[in-house]
Amino acid sequence: MDATPTFLEQLIAAGHLIPMGVDGLYGKSGVFEDILNKLDALISRHGAAQQAEVMRFPPAISQQNFEESEYLKTFPHFAGTVHCFCGDEREHRRVLDCVAEGKDWTEGQKASGVVLTPAACYPSYPVIARRGPLSEEGVTLDLLSYCFRHEPSLEPTRLQLFRMREYVRMGTPDQVLAFRQHWLEEGEKMMRSLALPLIIDVANDPFFGRAGRVLAASQREQKLKFELLVPVNSEESPTACLSFNYHMDHFGLIWALRTPGDEVAHTACVGFGLERITLALFRHHGFDPKAWPTEVQAVLGGF
Ligand code: ATP
Ligand code: ZN
Ligand code: MG
């Protein structure tokens, strides 16, 4: 019998993840949150030179913006829509009866007009587009949001609700590509300062269905997405902790984002998976941050 506990079981035993009865949904210990918040601050220090505009959105967007984003075309399998009870007293009695009888009570629920945010940058494009054409400098944003993806998993690094810190750039293709190149270097520097083993590789998004395979191949070929990967669950399949995405004119076209020269704006974003980086630190330095290498503690501001 193989009694070696999995990484997930070890995290639960250490109290850092608190099971809630659903795969990919966990409470976190105070220590976990302390590390995550210190990472958030470390990212801010690495991003300070960007003079990004800080915006914080709740973890949901309007159904209209969600539909406009075309997320349903490529990721219908991840989407989480909020549905609500909108019935009368009779319907209320039916719902309670269904619950009592163990039947599906959700049938009569109606779409609320609110959809859970799939990536931290989604709320920002329509908001910036509403301001009118970009200035010569373009726009750089600093975002952080809980994000939802319906991808239940036993890997602690694949959560259904997780926090994504992002910097987003909107502007000319040159501005946007320079931003992505900057973050490829700055992100690597930051992760090396945490003494984490890593590789950077070209990547693709898990687009849905047969058409998705074509999209994924083209995304790779054009090198639109890079990931910074750290072995967390296993050496063989390292985990994407940072992603560097060039969307070209995709969001610019959808929301009519314009440059001062009246061209369609291009956009790019760098995403930091805050839980994933925290888990990578646990994996490589142990479950007690007070026992981590002193350099790593110092980079995070001490424990
Ligand atoms: P993966 O290939 O592992 O599914 P991804 O390509 O879907 O990752 P992005 O869509 O680029 O990741 O999201 C940005 C960042 O958010 C990732 O680099 C990762 O750190 C984090 N992230 C993505 N999905 C999850 C998840 N299910 N749980 C925790 N963190 C996640
Ligand atoms: Zn993004
Ligand atoms: Mg994914």
Automatic annotation (TrEMBL):
Keyword check for ATP-binding: no
Enzyme class: ligase
Keywords for the protein's UniProt record, in alphabetical order: Ligase
Enzyme nomenclature, EC number: 6.2.1.n2
Keyword match Nucleus: no
Aminoacyl-transfer RNA synthetases class-II family profile domain: residues covered: 147-289
GO molecular function, one term: ligase activity
NCBIfam families: PRK07080.1
Name by which UniProt lists this protein: Amino acid--[acyl-carrier-protein] ligase
Protein's organism: Curvibacter microcysteis
